[in-house]
Write a structure and sequence with these properties.
With 237 residues, this protein is of the alpha+beta class. Helix content is 18%, strand content 36%. The strands form four sheets. The protein has a four-stranded mixed β-sheet, with no helix packed on it. A four-stranded antiparallel β-sheet has the order 5-4-7-8, with no helix packed on it.
Length: 237
């Protein structure tokens, strides 16, 4: 699990006095949500990260609010007061809860004048497995259910327009190593070719077959062999 560091700075609520003379004053239209300024940077280099999706999920009702970091690694979102929010950074096909932001409830004559600041230092995973990227047995032909996850990879690469990846094919140890190397290479090439048909630039995607050489589980059980038969994406840049 990569390390993440978060710094949450609490904004102050600012009361607004409403003065009445001979008749009650009309209530002021005060904002009841809180401004939240978010910045996200790489934990190692300190470089600000663009096109990162940060999600705030309300513990009160499960409502989600999200923002996309711009070229400066920042964005602003407004969140309803009176609840705590779990903070997620959305990766490829998953998200992990990293910290909590508490926005206390305020009274009718109060509002949040100063924003909450959420400064995130994030070490993104450098590789991930395309779960359910399945092929016909002994072939490099994608099964119908595999297109969903490959299409999700297309959308991820469109969002992460500066990233370059390697698509790696891996097999279990059933069969001859030479044949498995060829099969894994052909499967990786199939995924790369599909990405290119969806508009991903050729220089952003390389492919490589690893055969049986990089197992992640024991090959002596069906479960282990299933884990080893995989398509893995590595972030190159």
């Amino acid at each position: 699990m990569p390390k993440q560091y978060f710094y949450l700075l609490m904004a102050l609520t600012m009361p607004v006095a409403i003065f009445a003379q001979s008749s009650p004053a009309a209530p002021m239209n005060l904002p009841k949500d809180a401004p939240v300024n978010v910045s996200i940077a790489d934990a190692k280099s300190g470089n600000l990260l663009s096109n990162e999706i940060v999600v705030f999920k309300s513990r009160a009702n499960g409502t989600e609010f999200q923002g996309l970091s711009d070229s400066t690694g920042k964005f602003t979102v407004r969140l309803p007061n009176g609840t705590k929010y779990d903070i997620y950074i959305l990766g490829f096909h998953d998200s992990t809860s990293y910290n909590v932001l508490d926005i206390p409830a305020i009274k009718d004559n109060q509002y949040y004048k100063n924003p909450f600041n959420v400064d995130i230092q994030f070490e993104a995973p450098k590789s991930f497995v395309l779960d359910n990227c399945t092929f016909e047995t002994g072939k490099a032909t994608l099964q119908p259910e595999a297109y969903k996850v490959v299409d999700e990879l297309v959308e991820y690469l469109k969002r992460k327009e500066d990233e370059k990846i390697e698509v790696g094919g891996h097999t279990d140890n059933v069969g001859k190593p030479e044949a498995n190397m060829i099969l894994s290479t052909n499967r990786a090439n199939t995924v790369r070719a599909y990405l290119l048909t969806k508009g991903i630039a050729p220089d952003r995607v390389t492919s490589k077959g690893y055969g049986i050489t990089v197992p992640i589980a024991e090959n002596d059980t069906a479960e282990g062999r299933a884990l080893n038969r995989r398509t893995e994406v590595k972030i190159i840049e």
